[in-house]
Specification:
The chain has 220 residues and is of the alpha+beta class. It contains 3 helices and 13 strands; from the N terminus they run αβββββααββββββββ. The strands form 3 sheets. Strands 1-2-7-8-9-10 form a 6-stranded antiparallel β-sheet, with helices on one face. It has a 5-stranded antiparallel β-sheet with strand order 3-4-5-6-11, with no helix packed on it. A two-stranded antiparallel sheet has the order 12-13. β4 and β5 form a beta hairpin.
Length: 220
């Protein structure tokens, strides 16, 4: 846990958070584990906080009035099914012989030729897109702001006060349920608009009164 806490804080600093309001520490509540938190929303993608994993995940930016949740899903890939087996793979014994003989550079060159898949590089994965949640009547300036990642619960929470109302938003990814969930609480009635978009090769349409459906393709 200590390693994870330190690594998370180091990542935040490397990402460019130059302020001193970023902390990762044990909370005062003994029922909760370490958290990473900030006192302002994420300005860029590396500043956002992650939930989920490489298969199904998201980056949460925590903007009070216009939440951006960048979504990743592993099947969005611009490649195709192919046989990448190297027909010279049986020569791996030669690589071992060169290593045993102390010929490291020769072994490295031969390994690159006979032990790597063909082609060496695969087509890239792409982001699924952005889920935007626009909240009405939330000003640009809010108070008591906090964006946090609970490292034990794998949940990102955004809290703030605006116009006398207290807001709490939680985001988490569930692998068994295959969903990314967003939970919004406010002490006053709210109104919001939900959008889903992607920079290219996709379009979004409404389905019924409570669904957004995105269709498209991953292209180079």
């Amino acid at each position: 846990r200590r390693f994870l806490r330190t690594a998370a804080l180091s990542s935040a600093v490397i990402a460019g958070r130059h302020d001193v309001s970023a902390w990762a520490k044990e909370t005062d509540d003994p029922s909760k584990g370490p958290v990473l938190f900030f006192e302002q929303p994420a300005a860029t993608w590396p500043d956002a906080l992650p939930v989920g994993n490489g298969r199904l995940g998201a980056m949460v930016f925590g903007n009070p009035a216009k939440e951006r949740i960048q979504v990743n899903e592993e099947t969005l890939w611009d490649g195709e099914r192919r046989d990448r087996n190297n027909p010279q793979a049986a020569r791996s014994a030669e690589v071992r012989s060169l290593l045993m003989a102390g010929k490291v550079h020769e072994a490295e060159a031969l390994a690159a030729e006979v032990m790597m898949g063909i082609p060496v590089r695969l087509p890239v994965y792409q982001t699924l897109g952005d889920l935007w949640i626009d909240f009405d009547n939330v000003p640009a300036d809010v108070s008591a702001y906090r964006l946090e990642l609970d490292l034990d619960q794998a949940t990102v929470t955004t809290r703030f006060t605006a116009n006398g109302a207290t807001w709490t938003r939680e985001v988490f990814s569930s692998a068994p349920r295959n969903v990314i969930a967003v939970r919004v609480e406010c002490t006053q009635p709210i109104a919001l608009t939900v959008r889903l978009d992607r920079l290219a090769h996709a379009e979004t349409r409404t389905q019924g009164s409570d669904h957004l459906v995105m269709t498209g393709a991953a292209r180079p």
